[in-house]
TrEMBL record, chain A:
This is 2Fe-2S iron-sulfur cluster binding domain-containing protein. It comes from the Bacteria. InterPro entries: 2Fe-2S-bd_N, 2Fe-2S_ferredoxin-like_sf. It holds the Pfam family Fer2_4. The keyword ATP-binding does not apply. GO terms for molecular function: iron-sulfur cluster binding; oxidoreductase activity. Keywords: Oxidoreductase. The keyword Oxidoreductase applies.
From TrEMBL, chain B:
This is NADPH-dependent 2,4-dienoyl-CoA reductase, sulfur reductase. Coiled coil: none annotated. GO terms for molecular function: oxidoreductase activity. Residues 11-280 form the FAD/NAD(P)-binding domain. Gene3D superfamilies: BFD-like [2Fe-2S]-binding domain (1.10.10.1100), FAD/NAD(P)-binding domain (3.50.50.60). Keywords: Oxidoreductase. It holds the Pfam family Pyr_redox_2. Residues 381-434 form the BFD-like [2Fe-2S]-binding domain. InterPro entries: BFD-like_2Fe2S-bd_dom, BFD-like_2Fe2S-bd_dom_sf, FAD/NAD-bd_sf, FAD/NAD-binding_dom, Metab_Enz_Cyan_OpOx_G3PDH, Opine_Oxase_asu/HCN_bsu. It comes from the Bacteria.
Length: 104, 466
């Protein structure tokens, strides 16, 4: 999967050149990323959602993009919670869209 | 628990324009404050630094001169912070008398203070629309942060809607970086705009000129601008597909688009101020609740507040307010010899001027609260808990006694979610005021509760056990 093919399915359009320096994953789906990118930039140029609202099941994809609304909350597989808009990518980062059972 | 000595370094929360200006004043006086900031880089939100991934885009985005000035300012700020106890990536999630609760690197920590400056800034004031929870709808400030921090456009075909000086600036910045399919829907009524323009010209002709030149720039680039628009709905199945609005002549129009940025001015971030003991007052012109501060920014014996979190005045006003608050703190710390009283007088004058400009501008940028009364009941009002406008309207008669927003929150859960009412609180006040036929000032404001940011359960339990 090339980055340009992937970006056509996403919401965000990167203004910088994308490249594959590392990988992160969301619900097991691997996505290439470049050092210095935010997690939300990588996820939303590859996907059109960051999971679903636990109240009505509709897709969610962040709103304020500056750490205040928590709409882009994701969980690492060990249960830690991150805000995709406030977190920089790291190689091997494995994220899930629903909280693991231990941390609900 | 005893507090720190009066010689303890002052604590600043927020490394935006106000916090950095205050830090600069302390450093000049030979004092090294603790600066806590949630972000990984200083600069705040409106004046956020450009991601290094876009380092070649600074000139097209800001212009050659402004981008040089930005570089110089950032170098100055870096120098100041190198002389402070600067803690990036640090969330302040609570405050109590004389102390703050911090979360950094997954661990919670208490920080006692003798002198605290809150420079927590503002977030977009938001009114809901049918479909505003669809992926692809972002706050106006968020759309700008998407560019500067995330290096990305929020979509390929974008509607910028609402009112705010930021509306035209954000659209222009997208345009300068190459996006052309942009529509601006300005909800400001034309008559209000004219009146405000006269008032604004009196206090800051330069700012008014900047606004007009942004509009001219957008028109030259082929951007469609619709004035006095009434926003109707965002449409789409799983993401944004179209935007419906009514133009000034009352004609309904449907625009194809894949992203929307909405904002209706700014609202102060005041949760920490409230937890630290500040009193609040309603500003009838700006139509928001603000912490009560002295002209120098003092809100309590050990508490100062500066910048958009105290009075919405933009980056320039925030720098004056931050510096003035730091000088007032130096006096309170017994370091008055480092403070020149004529400088304080000058700063107070500039601040008063900025405030008058803001009040003049607010006459144009009035929140279109009446827009809410025409929205259908199934419109989601609280995006976190998915509470609808209809549920909130129905709850008002069920509340006994004088109806205020915290009662309605308790009944409906509106404002109880993870954003803590930041993005529904403005509309909740308007809806309750309308449903009760009372003034916005009388229905109160959502009370803040710690943690003001979600914290890991493990960290919270550790904290409770101590």
């Amino acid at each position: 999967m090339t980055a340009s093919a992937a970006s056509s399915s996403g919401l965000f359009v990167p203004i910088y050149e994308v490249s594959t320096e590392l990988f992160i994953s969301l619900d097991g789906l691997r996505m290439p990323a470049r050092r210095g990118e935010t997690v939300i930039a990588v996820l939303l140029r590859n996907a059109a959602a960051l999971g679903r609202s636990e109240f009505d099941g509709r897709s969610r994809a962040g709103f304020c993009l500056m750490g205040a609304c928590q709409d882009c909350s994701l969980w690492s597989e060990d249960g830690g919670r991150i805000r995709a808009c406030m977190t920089m990518v790291e190689d091997g980062m494995a994220l899930v869209t629903a909280p693991p059972l231990a941390e609900t | 628990m005893s507090g720190p000595s009066q010689d303890a370094p002052p604590v600043i929360v927020g490394a935006g324009p106000a916090g950095l200006a205050a830090a600069g004043a302390f450093v000049e006086a030979g004092i090294h404050p603790i600066v806590l900031d949630e972000s990984d880089r200083p600069g705040g939100q409106g004046t956020r630094r450009l991601t290094p991934l876009l380092c070649d885009k600074a000139e097209p985005l800001f212009g050659a001169r402004a981008s040089r000035r930005r570089q110089e300012r950032e170098a100055r700020e870096d120098h100041i912070l190198s002389l402070c106890d600067y803690r990036a990536n640090t969330v302040v999630w609570g405050a109590f008398d004389g102390g703050l609760e911090l979360l950094s690197g997954g661990a919670c920590q208490d920080l006692r203070y003798a002198h605290l400056l809150l420079a927590t800034g503002a977030t977009d004031a938001i009114l809901p629309l049918p479909g505003w929870t669809l992926p692809g709808v972002y706050s106006l400030g968020g759309a700008q942060v998407a560019l500067k921090r995330h290096g990305s456009f929020i979509g390929r075909k974008i509607v910028f809607a609402g009112f705010s000086p930021l509306l035209y600036l954000a659209a222009a910045q997208y345009c300068r970086l190459g996006l052309r399919e942009i529509t601006v829907l300005d909800t400001t009524p034309l008559r209000g705009k004219l009146h405000a323009a006269i008032g604004m010209a009196r206090y800051a002709a330069g700012t008014l000129r900047q606004g007009l030149s942004l509009m001219a720039e957008l028109r030259r680039a082929g951007v469609r601008i619709r004035a006095a628009a009434e926003l109707l709905a965002v449409e789409g199945k799983d993401h944004v597909e179209a935007f419906r609005f009514r133009d000034a002549a009352g004609r309904e129009e449907r625009l194809d688009c894949d992203a929307v940025a909405i904002g209706f001015g700014l609202r102060p971030e005041t949760q920490l101020a409230e937890l630290a003991g500040a009193a609040f007052e309603f500003d009838p012109v700006l139509r928001h609740w603000f912490p009560r501060v002295s002209p120098d920014g003092q809100a309590g014996p050990a508490l100062w507040i500066a910048g958009d979190g105290a009075r919405t005045m933009g980056a320039e006003g925030a720098r004056f307010a931050g510096r003035l608050a730091a000088l007032s703190m130096l006096q309170a710390m017994g370091r008055g010899e480092a403070v020149k009283s004529d400088e304080m007088r000058r700063l107070r004058r500039r601040l008063e001027h900025a405030r008058r400009f803001q009040l003049a501008a607010a006459k144009a940028f009035r929140l279109p609260g009446e827009m809410l009364s025409r929205l259908p009941g199934e419109t989601v009002l609280c995006r976190c808990e998915r509470v609808t406008l209809g549920e909130v309207r129905a709850a008002v008669p069920r509340a006994s006694g004088p109806v205020e927003v915290n009662r309605v929150k308790a009944i409906t859960r509106c404002g109880m979610g993870r954003c803590q009412g930041r993005y529904c609180g403005v509309a909740l006040g308007e809806v309750v005021a309308e449903a009760t036929g009372r003034d916005l000032a009388e229905v109160g404001r959502l009370r803040a509760q710690a943690p003001i940011r979600p914290i890991p359960m493990s960290a919270a339990m550790r904290d409770a056990a101590e």
